[in-house]
C-alpha cells in the first residue's frame, strides 16, 4: 500500500531523526550511568539528578520531532509531550529468605554475540543480573522481579531476602547496604518516603514514619510525588536521605532528612540555601552536623555547598585549585575516613576531548577543599568510575586501564587492566589490592529493535591487573 506521506514529511522526519541521534550521542558522552552506591557516606541511588535530566532531554527530542512533522503537514502545533521523571523497577512478589543467587538473564544468541565484552576475562562468561544492581564496599544487592538478593562479599555469594510485607520492588526508590551493619530501602509512600531497615543477620524489617517534605521554598510543587532519592549511610549510626522532585531540565526541589539512629527515625532539615534551581548529585556527611552536597543546574554539577548545622543552612566552602573560567564538572563526593573527596574533570578543548582529572579533598568536614595532588589526562571521560580506600584510589578509564594512587592523589600510576571492559559504571575497593565492578552492556539486535541493557559483575584480587567474571 502506498504511503500517503508527503516527501517533505519524510525529509523532515529524517532530519529530526539525524538531529535526535546527534543529541543522544552527546547525551551518552555527557550522561554517564550514575553510580549506584558508595561506601558509608556516599550516595545511595545514583539514578538521581541525571535521571531527571536525561528523561527531559528525551522528552524534548520527541517534542521536536513531533513539532517538525506537524509543521510539514501544515497542521497547527499544540505542544509536544513532556516527561515525568521517575525511578522504578518492575513489580515483584515477596522473595523467600533462603540462600540463592540473583536471577540471571538469558539473552538470545544473537544478542549475546552482539555484545560480547572486549577484552574478555579469562574465565567462562558473564552472569547477567536481572534488576537494579548496587555496590557499597563489600556489600552488593540486586532488586528485581524475583525479589531482593544481598551479598556480603562483593558479589561472590548471595542470599535472598524477603521484602517488607506489602512492599513491591516498583515502589523502591533507593537501596543501600553496609556489610556487617544493615540494609536500607527507601520506599515510595504517597507524598513521601518510608525507610525500611534490616540489621545484618536479622530477618525482620523495621520502618520509619513517612518522610514528607515540607517544600517550604517550593510551594508550587507541594503535593507532587517524590521522584528520586539519595540514600546515604554515613559513619557510625548516621544515615542521610534526600528527596527530589524535578521541575524541568535544570531545576528541582530537594528535602534533606538526617538520622542518627541508623535509619530508625529521621529529622527533616529544610534547606534555606540552596533553593530551587539546583539539582543535588550527592550528599556526604562526616557528622550529623557537618557535610556537603555536590549540586548544580541541569546535568553538570559545578558547585559544592557546605553545612555545619545539619542542613538547616548552607554556604559555599573555600575551594582552591579549580579553573578560573569554570570549565569543569564535579563528580559525586566520597567519604574516605574522615575526609571528603570530590572528583574534578576539567576540559580545555571544544567537545570535551581534552580532559584532565584530579581530586579535591577536605580535611575539615567540608569547610575547605584543595587539590590532593597532580592531575592526569582522562581521555574525554567526564564521569569515570572510581573509589577510594584510605590513601588508595582507583579510577577506571578506557583502554582498558586503571589510574591508581597510593598516596592520596599525590602521584598516579597506570595499570593495564586485562579483562576490564568498557561500560564500568561503578567500582568498589574491597581492599587496597582488590575490587568489584559493575559493568553494563547496551546494544540492539537490529536497527533500533531488540535493544537491551545488561549488567554483570567482575572482580580483581591482584591490584587491578587481571579481572574475572563473578
Question: Can you characterise this structure?
Answer:
By secondary structure, this protein is mainly β. It has helices at residues 7-30, 48-72, 109-114; strands at 132-136, 139-144, 147-151, 159-161, 172-178, 182-189, 192-199, 206-207, 228-233, 239-246, 252-259, 267-269, 279-285, 291-296, 303-307, 318-319, 328-330, 334-336, 339-347, 355-362, 368-371, 376-377, 386-389, 392-397, 401-405, 413-416, 424-431, 434-446, 449-460, 468-469. The strands form seven sheets. Strands 16, 17, 18, 19, 20, 21 and 22 form a seven-stranded mixed β-sheet that branches. Strand 5 (172-178) and strand 6 (182-189) form a beta hairpin. Helix 1 packs antiparallel against helix 2.
- The helix-and-strand class reads mainly beta
Measured between the Cα atoms of the first and last residue, the distance is 52 Å
Instruction: Please tally the β strands and state the result.
Output: 30
Query: Helix fraction?
Result: 10-25%
Biggest sheet details: 7 strands, mixed
**Low-pLDDT segments:** 1-101, 104-118
Count of helices? 3
Please compute the radius of gyration using only Cα atoms.
Answer: 22 Å
The best one-word shape is globular
Mean pLDDT over the full residue set: 75
- Please report which band the strand proportion falls in: under 5%, 5-15%, 15-25%, 25-35%, 35-45% or over 45%: 35-45%
